[in-house]
Amino acid sequence: MTEARLRSFTAVADTGSVRAAAQRLYVTESAVSAAVAALAREVGVPLVERDGRGLRLTPAGAAYASYARRVLGLLEQGRAAARGAADPARGSLQLAAVATAADQLLPGLLASFRARLPDVEVAVEVGPSRQVWGGLADHRADLVLAGRPPAGVPAKVLARRPNELVVVGSPAVAAGFALGTTPWVMREPGSGTRATAEAYLADRDAAPPRLVLGSNGAVIAGAAAGLGVALVSRDAVGAELADGRLVVVDAPGMPLQRPWHAVAGPSLTPTARLFVRHLVDAPGWTPAEGP
């Protein structure tokens, strides 16, 4: 059961085709097919089956895929831990962040961190909450910057930073705001901010029209253009509030306090520990538990 076979299988699971998996891995299609077939023989059950022109996971394959991703993540973390143990200042760091944290928090943190430790290799995965917490569970990420970790994710909160959620809209929309009828501009399913907005409206038995846009930037731009109001982090709209393109709407029960969390899995690599120490020294962050 080699790493190459696991990578071929997870690539097929992710893409749904041997051709796309081969393109992702820069190998031949025959190499991918052979690797998946060999892995199925070792596991003892079929892992994929035909689905039109592509492939899909069998129930056994779907069950196995989550374990395969964790094994691959652990192998990567093991390599990073070994390199970091030899020289933490020359190791690698895998970060994952939700879009607002990546836009508002990471640039300054990474710039100052790289100024101190320029030889650390840093990779950042940005996505909705479901994706970044999945990255932590699968060991693809050393550290996640997001909201509160969901139940069931093996996670340890290392630091927190205040984060205030507000409802914003253009001045014209804000002037005529009504909770049940003014449209709301929202992120895609899987976004933590969207889940918070939907829970907020449900708690007040409000069902306003919704317009779904595909990114945090698009939501902010849509609200500024007058498409409706949006629930966003105040950190994300400082420029728009300052120049008057957006104003804070006087919505009931607002603002909401939803702190940012820096969260790690059960163990930290030596290089990740250096980043955590840097983070807790940054303005606004306070340690939650000793790393």
From TrEMBL:
Keyword annotations from UniProtKB, A to Z: DNA-binding, Transcription, Transcription regulation
PROSITE patterns: HTH_LYSR (PS50931)
Residue intervals passing through the bilayer: none
Superkingdom, taxonomy of origin: Bacteria
Domain HTH lysR-type intervals: 1-58
InterPro entries, A to Z: LysR_HTH_N (IPR000847), LysR_subst-bd (IPR005119), WH-like_DNA-bd_sf (IPR036388), WH_DNA-bd_sf (IPR036390)
Family membership noted in the UniProt record: Belongs to the LysR transcriptional regulatory family.
Record's protein name: LysR family transcriptional regulator
Organism: Actinomadura keratinilytica
Origin organism lineage: Bacteria, Bacillati, Actinomycetota, Actinomycetes, Streptosporangiales
